[in-house]
Amino acid sequence: xxxxxxxxxxxxxxxxxxxxxxxxxxxxxxxxxxxxxxxxxxxxxxxxxxxxxxxxxxxxxxxxxxxxxxxxxxxxxxxxxxxxxxxxxxxxxxxxxxxxxxxxxxxxxxxxxxxxx
Amino acid sequence: xxxxxxxxxxxxxxxxxxxxxxxxxxxxxxxxxxxxxxxxxxxxxxxxxxxxxxxxxxxxxxxxxxxxxxxxxxxxxxxxxxxxxxxxxxxxxxxxxxxxxxxxxxxxxxxxxxx
Lengths: 117, 115
Fold this sequence. Notes:
A: 7-stranded mixed beta sheet, 11 strands, B: mainly beta, 6-stranded mixed beta sheet, 4-stranded antiparallel beta sheet
């Protein structure tokens, strides 16, 4: 597709369930990012991949959060044993280059809205 | 600490008028990038404009311009000739340092354009 695609668009999980969120980046984009956006806030960095390598996972809030990009394209963000505080919009973004700038800005998907009940 | 501050939770502007959305940043890095993104109700973050810390001229992209004042650490977005479709959340973001790609976002400003 032309843009970054995320699925599902909405996800409701009961507390304690595991969830998996999918991101299809723009074809050929080297860099892939996951961000978490709480209600009324700006996005916060979770993790970064360059091709299949996860170079930075400093933003993952706990060891319940796990991300992978095994073949350097599609990525999955998995949250185990979901908690209410995990409720947020999870945004995926990709960029062509390895350095974010005006010539290689981040292109975001529409996000997955996760609600944990 | 590296931080982006947007002090205007909401702004109103009449169609065809210009509006300035404020952004200040804090970093000790000499090299950094500043971005503005638009987030309509659909949720997608749309890249608008970029300013590098070493760029001497203010960035412009169509109706968007970035008023970069390095000494004041401000990077205000100016939208000229506002349109109804400009109504959205606007986020200022910074990419600090040479070797980092992560963006640090502000809390956003909700812009409403009225006829």
